[in-house]
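User: I'm designing a mutation panel for Transmembrane protein and want to avoid disrupting the core. Could you give me a predicted structure to guide residue selection? Please restate the sequence first so the numbering is unambiguous.

Assistant: Good idea. Sequence first, for numbering, then the predicted structure tokens:
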Amino acid sequence: MNSILLVSTLIVFGRAISDVRCNQQISFPLQNEGFAEGVRGQDLNYYLQTTKRILKTNSELQTIGVIDEEDSLNFVCQRVINHPDGQHVFSVCLEYGVIPYLTAYKCENNICKQIGSTQQIWNCGDQFSKLEVIGNTFVVLNAQRDYPYYSNTNGRVMFMNYVLTEDNFYLKLPSYYLDFYYFGLPNTIDIIDFSIHQYEEDGLLKAKMFLADRDNGLLWVDCQLKQNLLIPTSKGRIELRPLVYMKQNQIFLTSRIISKYDNRFDILVASNNNDHYIVTAIFENEQLATFFIKTSLNQYQDWPAKNRLDLYKNYFAITYWSPNNISAISIYKLSENSETSQFSVGPFYTILLTQQSYSVVFFGENSNKQIVLNYRSQSNEITQCLLN
């Protein structure tokens, strides 16, 4: 029998209340400011991006630092990116809601100051969706990731090198474009997400990228870090569409690398109105040798999925949206064994929220190193749930 837990305006359905406990909730006392994104920082901290500033919090979502965005009158801030060094953080804000600008901050003892001047992300137009940091290279998604359903704009990924010193920060022009020209394809493709895994092999720093092709499935790129700059070295395509049953208007939303064992990668590929897939790709001599579908993650009812999701350790959360103004966050627990897995897996818990077009989800750990899910429960509110 399903149990029902009512928290404020939040209704939670699940197999048992003991599966998930939502006992931390933070409300921003803001009138015209909403919560846009949250990322994991160092030492169990978070960086929370609102439309006007960045809040640094501890693992219990208590604010320990604030970064007020400069010139915020004409800007709506959208993304926060944590630098691997644990000291720098980047923020992307959209001028008049369109043109992306990037600002760098250095944080010491919970006090953050801007480094250099705010930089425009060139050649991105009005289609910025995502940015990751690898060495001294930004990997930029030039596509409509959040709203891809009517996209025919040939999304692509750009490599953009940058310089960051104690008192200066600036961008260089893009060094590589990963698009249908780069992959040598006769027809256009629409890349709407990517994920990167860094590793060391034979004394070389390398990275493997998997890119989600909206209509066909996956692309992959091997890279090396030379002088701390990311350089692509080989590439390929994985045709996923012929291997799965495709519903009408179905597209592939995202790709996330789950694990790497030697030359074997497990990748999560989510879709908008069907099940999601965990696929296994095995490489030999920098070429794809074997590819197969390992597990199917069941769609929540028949609701379409949004490209709002997170993957942490062996937990996966994704948001759905129904026509009657209800959004859902389904939480899946993935197999920790790369060799074996159930063919079909359903969510072990689903959270229902009313009157939201989408939610923001990001995993973390509390002070006891227990895994928690944080999500936007209202436009200016975050709820934290403990996964038992």
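For picking mutation sites, this is relevant: The two ends are 19 Å apart (CA to CA). The first strand starts at residue 3 and ends at 7.
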